[in-house]
Amino acid sequence: MSAKEIAHIMKSRHSVRAFKDKKVPKLIIQEILEAASRAPSGSNTQPWKVYVVQGKIRDEIVNEVCKVYDDLLELPELKSQYQAAYDYYPQEWFSPYIERRRENGWGLYGLLGIEKKDREKMAAQHKRNFMLFDAPVGLFLTVDKRLGTGSKMDISMFIQNILLMAKAKGLDTCPQAAWNEYQSIVLLKIKAGSHEELLCTVALGYADETQVVNEFITPRVSLDDFSTWLGFEES
Ligand SMILES: Cc1cc2nc3c(=O)[nH]c(=O)nc-3n(C[C@H](O)[C@H](O)[C@H](O)COP(=O)(O)O)c2cc1C
Prior knowledge:
Elements: H1 3-12, H2 26-36, E1 49-53, H3 55-74, H4 97-111, H5 119-127, E2 137-144, H6 149-168, E3 172-176, H7 183-189, E4 196-205, H8 223-226
Helix pairs in contact: 2-6
The structure holds flavin mononucleotide (FMN).
């Protein structure tokens, strides 16, 4: 495969938030995960662990978490019972990240015709996370909580490999941190070990190209803005 083809896969991957009701062959998922496991990891610890979930058990997890999500809309004081294992986001947002976050959120809602005052529509769209955006497969990635922060980096590389390999195989994905808050439900359903915590979820399936939500393509800051070059004035 040429550099151009690899760049094409990288650049055409984007988060998909509406999937077709179409099964993904087990063999394809196996190929994706096997290739993804060539990801580097500190001391080759390979700390990734992935639960590949489809069918009845997928539906049970989706239904259970959606039910709790609905209940918490009525009883927000119970939210503290559902805690993520780690802070994915800062407690307090600051520039320039807060602006990017807002641009992203309102960009997506804007495309869907959801305005600031539409609290119910916002909650309904957020709930789509817990339906895996209708993807037939959910990948629940856990990490052994006794490992260090670096293992989360290792697993992130594994996840990016999954996203790219899936794209190369004509599939689409959405990485999801939204599930982390409901890890207590997920971990129980997937029968995770007592040392495991939920790191991330990936919705996997075939994109429904007819859905406007999938037209959402995010911008990036320019190379000049995120890179600092030292010693290049000599070359
Ligand atoms: C670790 C991680 C967690 C994410 N969690 C969510 C999520 O819970 N729900 C969602 O809709 N998108 C989620 N995203 C997708 C991001 O919003 C998306 O990657 C970002 O806006 C850039 O867009 P792109 O993936 O389409 O290039 C997540 C992305 C990452 C990397």
